[in-house]
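Sample A.
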Amino acid sequence: ILFVFGIALVVSLVTTVVVFHIGCRVGSHSDVGFLAALFFAFLPYEAMIFQIAGHIDFNLQVLWFAVLLLAVLRATDRNRRPSGFEFGAVSSVAAIFNPGFLLCAAVGFIFAIRGRSRREMVRFILLAGLAHMLILGPVVAIQSARLGGFVPVKSNAGFEMYLGNTSEARGILQNRTFRAHHPSQNAEEFTRYGRMGELEYVREVSRRFRDSVRFEDVLDNSLRRTYNFFLGYQVKLWDASSAVIAVKEMFWKLPLVSLLVLAAIRRGRLESTEWLVVLFALAYSFPYLLTGVMERYRIPVVSATAVILALVTHAILEYWRQRQA
């Protein structure tokens, strides 16, 4: 555990440096970078990972969210030729850790080729595609051969849809949901999983989901997922008092509140890079809004939150300096 804790701590330090560079690019000023790194280091979200030993490895998701966002910002930089291979390589490695990052990469891709010449667009697309083939291609081939069927990066998307929309979950993944339906905690499901194999088991569960799904239930669950992803806080056994709970609930609402404050400061006219950060975070959240939400799934968004808070703080400080002059 101490070894994993040490690795996660190093990952956090590296992510702080990455967030600094993201802030510099989005805010076009090193002050914004320093503020973003400071907010990332002191906001409590990521520290919650270290409270549960089984969640420490999730810190890699936080890192790759930030690394991919920085790669996207580099690709959209109008002062340099966009490197399609670099963009494709980073997004490919990120997708190995979380296939949902491909949606984030799609958002970045649109921003990267926007306003480019046709020649630059073609070059960017070809190099990004080559990187995906070289990095993701072998992963897909090995997984597909091992599981006995074509698997695009990850095989359990159908199971995730089923699990998050069960009556026990209703959009929110909790222990009772895993005990009722997940092979890791349910003996009957584990037996069925072992007998059928992973790919066929996921197909069977997907059929189960399609046969029982009701649109209004999925819609209701998605609304619950959206609220819990962006605003909700799940009370813990170690939350000592109502005051502690109130403070934590305030922090979980901070990402959306900070975005609204930035929009108000900008009078609704966000900069292109600011829109990119917002859409990137929304793209990351989208798969969870369809399947199931756990508290740790939203922690990677802290990088975007830190940058937005840095932009708000920098704008307020600049206004105060102008008033003092």
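Sample B, a different protein:
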Amino acid sequence: NWFEKICPYIYKFINNELYEYIELSRVIDKKLKEEKIKAVLATNLGADDYARCIAYRAFKNDIPVILHHHGAFGFHHELSYFYQEIRYCSHYLVYGQGCKEYIKKLNNNIDVRVVGSPGLEIDRQSMPDKNKLYSYYKLDINKPIVVYTTVPPLGKNRILGMNGENEFRHYEIQNKIVDTLMLSKNNQIIIKGHISETLENSPLLRKIHDMNYPNLIYDKDIPFKDLLNIADCFIMDMPSTTLLEALSTRKPIYSFNRCYEWEDEALGILKNEIVIETSDLDSFCERIFNDMETGIAYKERTMDSVFFEKYGDPYKDGNSNIRIKKEIMDIVYN
């Protein structure tokens, strides 16, 4: 039965990891006291068991544990934030008001402060020259450029959410979108891949490699930010930080995602600003093709993004680092 199957893992945890964490906790408690630690700062407790242990022991010793927002959250429900992050912190520095509301909904006892995002303070002057990118990619300056950004699971099914999405179905999405983009002869396609993709682990990369399509460029190494100026339109199937970065422009965005458990308010705001589909891939691709053929896909929005201000950077003044430092000093010394 199921219990017999998990028993070996329980025994392994008790005989190995549990004793290790108990001893580690003693070492951490001693170090916190000896060094007179005033606060613990962290940005991603979900990535490291030992970091969570340090944060937990500091929290139990009434030492402020200050987390700083990483990635994109607040607009969709992510269980790891509850189980791996906010249980171990006293303070959270977040990008925008929507992120604060999300954290407070999960745990109202946390002191949450809105500081903006240094990573979303995009300096367009420091981006690669547009003409140099045209030359580097051998692009036609008279044809629109569609940037499709995708994040393949690469075995990490957690990022596909809890609704039964899997790697094969995700490739179906990628495959359908790429085939749709290639139907239009008037565009040029740049696929922003993931840095860890290889021919062995990515069926999408194998497809692109085999077909040798002249108007399609695959680049996994260039930062997505470097493509913001050159793109006329964005397509994405895993709208995370890239969504916020793209929303810092007024360029059209088409997003397909059936993995997230979206927050209702966030999804409502987003639907007023971009084309987003959460279930019907065929209608999504049909919309992309029709808009490319009519030119609607390349017409910029007339207003700045409300979604970006609520979940990304509400200040847009370039002073997020200053606010972060100020809040940390206030938490530690006041």
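Observation for Sample B: Residues 59 and 332 are 14 Å apart (CA to CA).
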